Amino acid sequence: MRTFVIGDIHGGLLALEQVLKRAEVTTQDTIIFLGDYVDGWSQSAEVIDFLIEFKKTQNCIFIRGNHDQLALDWLENRHEDFDEEMWYKHGGRATVEGYSKISPERKKDHIAFFESLKDYYLDDENRLFVHAGFTNLNGVVWEYFPKLFYWDRTLWESALALDPNLKPDDLYYPKRFTVYKEIYIGHTPVTRIGETVPINKACVWNVDTGAAFKGPLTIMNIDTKEFWQSEPLNELYSNEKGRN
């Protein structure tokens, strides 16, 4: 039995199907999804359909991404603190267009799926899985602002900026990086630093390899760190823009 983690999908069902096949995932494996299933490519609704069916035969853990929360707010007509124009610019338009083609019954199933998502997952080996990050120095249980689980970027920015010569027992070593054995995140694509593979900084593994844009989708074995990738999403959806 293996445990895999999958980065941000952003409506790219073709890529999701590719990585599951390339990693030769079986029903004995556990899959941890880091969120952002929607917004970007044209198959956001189809991704949710796939995941709803997938979890019936597969041990899955689904984390909430910021785009998933935005989609849920839209589906439930919650418009307070919701900038619809900004959401459209960042992938929401494709989601709205996709949902215009599905039945009210399917929408109800999708709302139930979005509402069931976890803010984070902590395994038996003290490995944390969260979409974006957290800010409380003592860890996720103490976080004052739960929205930061799917909006924060400071955890990854701090990991990138950390002097690699600092040791965990150093006075200046960030306490956030001493709480967990490993932290797995998505949210901020590594393409921003010119990469398209999972990147490890301090104890943080960033598995968002830019599938919303021109990067591939990635699935990684958390024990061996072996990973498999889809074709770049802009090639799989060559007639679309995604979030580019």
TrEMBL record:
A single Gene Ontology CC term: cytoplasm
GO MF term set: bis(5'-nucleosyl)-tetraphosphatase (symmetrical) activity; phosphatase activity
Any one of the GO BP annotations: RNA decapping
Pfam families found in the cross-reference section: Metallophos
UniProt xrefs under CDD domains: MPP_PPP_family (cd00144)
Record's protein name: Serine/threonine protein phosphatase 1
Organism for this UniProt entry: Flavobacterium defluvii
InterPro entries, per the entry: Ap4A_hydrolase, Calcineurin-like_PHP, Metallo-depent_PP-like
Domain Calcineurin-like phosphoesterase: 1-158
PANTHER family: METALLOPHOSPHOESTERASE, ZINC-DEPENDENT ENDOPOLYPHOSPHATASE
Domain of life: Bacteria
